[in-house]
Design a protein that fits this description.
The protein is α+β, with helices and mostly antiparallel strands. It is built from three helices and eight strands; from the N terminus they run H-H-E-E-E-E-E-E-E-E-H. It has a domain of 89 residues. The strands form two sheets. A six-stranded antiparallel β-sheet has the order 2-3-4-8-7-5. A two-stranded antiparallel ribbon has the order 1-6.
């Protein structure tokens, strides 16, 4: 019985090792996403017009991407740790006269959490972001060698 446990444990360890080495880890993928947004972000601006929140994506505890239209995004840095940013299903942004401003407006992550003060806003060049993300997906692929028929077996006709 103990032999079976050893075999099962060795098999599971091998499978986990294969999964771990098959690609980047979650934290590596998040670092790549942060790097892609940072490379595509322009110079800081004081504010942006805000009518609708199209979508958003947390990049860290202090940074998120906010899409105000399908073709317009902003990289927002918030003060310190924005509690619940990774786990909330929705966010809100404060604004004044349809403008979200640095050091004045906030990211809201839920009723029980302290609003996160916006420290920096940068426009995101979405075409460049797409190029950055495609470059990260590039892999070094090599074609497989054709299988050689086993010795003594016909090569097929």
């Amino acid at each position: 019985m103990s032999f079976i446990r050893v075999v099962v444990a060795a098999t599971l360890a091998g499978m986990l090792g294969a999964c771990a080495s098959s690609g980047p880890t979650y934290s590596q993928r998040m670092q790549q996403r942060q790097a892609a947004y940072a490379a595509a972000a322009g110079a800081p601006v004081r504010s942006f017009q805000f009518f609708n929140l199209w979508s958003w994506e947390p990049l860290s505890y202090t940074q998120l991407a906010v899409y105000t239209r399908p073709n317009q995004a902003w990289l927002i840095d918030v003060q310190d740790n924005c509690q619940n940013l990774w786990f909330t299903n929705s966010i809100g942004l404060t604004s004044n006269a349809s403008q979200v401003s640095v050091h004045f407006d906030k990211v809201l992550t839920g009723r029980a959490y302290i609003p996160c003060i916006i420290m920096q806003i940068r426009p995101v060049d979405l075409a460049r972001l797409k190029v950055e993300q495609q470059a990260q997906r590039k892999i070094d692929a090599e074609p497989r060698q054709p299988e050689q028929p086993a010795q003594g077996q016909p090569s097929g006709s």
